[in-house]
Amino acid sequence: MTFDVRYRANEAIRGIGQVRLIDASGTMVGVVPYWDALNKARAEGLDLVEINRNSTPPVCKILDFGKFKYEQEKATKESKKKQTTQDLKEAVLRPSTDTHDVLIKAKHIREWLGDGSRVKVVIKMRGREKAHPDQGLKVIQELLENCGPHKVLGQIQNLDGRLIVATIDPA
């Protein structure tokens, strides 16, 4: 369990003359001296926790600090669970790739796009294939037509005569 350094509690709150106090029930008490707020929290068997140190005077609340940290950590885990990461998958083809193989690649690309991943399509050319980039473009166009109505990011790039690259977004 990691300790959140954003919140200071009890004696860790230092160098403060007065605090804006919120009691255990959530009602605003007002601006009181720090030691009075700390004694009130101890009298209730709870902790004095600095909620906002940037305001003047700092806002402190009387609560159970262990329970507060647990709820903060639980909320952090829940928000991380709801996050989605966008992967970048790569499909590599050659200009001499057969039509059936292009259809199989297109099927895989549709699955990846359905899962929310971006797809980078690369046509690798070697030797004499570099002299005919139009065949590579033909293969990539055929593949993009079979992938469905997805958005191609930017233009199809021809990198140093050896690679043709297109990036597809799952929009």
Your description of this structure?
The protein folds into two domains: 8-79, Roll (Ubiquitin-like (UB roll)), CATH 3.10.20.80; 88-169, 2-Layer Sandwich (Translation Initiation Factor IF3). It has four helices and nine strands. The chain has helices at 34-43, 65-82, 99-114, 133-146; strands at residues 8-9, 18-22, 28-33, 47-52, 59-63, 88-93, 118-124, 151-159, 163-169. The chain has a five-stranded mixed beta sheet with strand order 1-4-5-2-3. A four-stranded mixed beta sheet has the order 6-7-9-8. A hairpin with a 5-residue loop joins β2 (18-22) and β3. α3 packs across α4. The protein is rod-shaped, with a radius of gyration of 30 Å.
Count of individual domains: 2
CATH structural architecture of the largest domain: 2-Layer Sandwich
Radius of gyration, taken over Cα atoms and rounded to an integer in Å: 30 Å
Number of helices: 4
At CATH level 3, the topology of the largest domain is Translation Initiation Factor IF3
CA-to-CA gap between the ends?
Answer: 38 Å
CATH C-level class of the largest domain is Alpha Beta
Largest sheet: 5 strands, mixed
Mean pLDDT: 84
Multimeric organization: single chain
Helix content: 25-40%
Question: What overall form do the CA principal axes indicate?
Answer: rod-shaped
Q: Tell me the total number of β-strands.
A: 9
Contiguous low-pLDDT stretches (5 residues minimum) are: none
Major sheet: arrangement of strands: 1-4-5-2-3
Secondary-structure-derived class: alpha+beta
What is the percentage of strand-forming residues?
25-35%
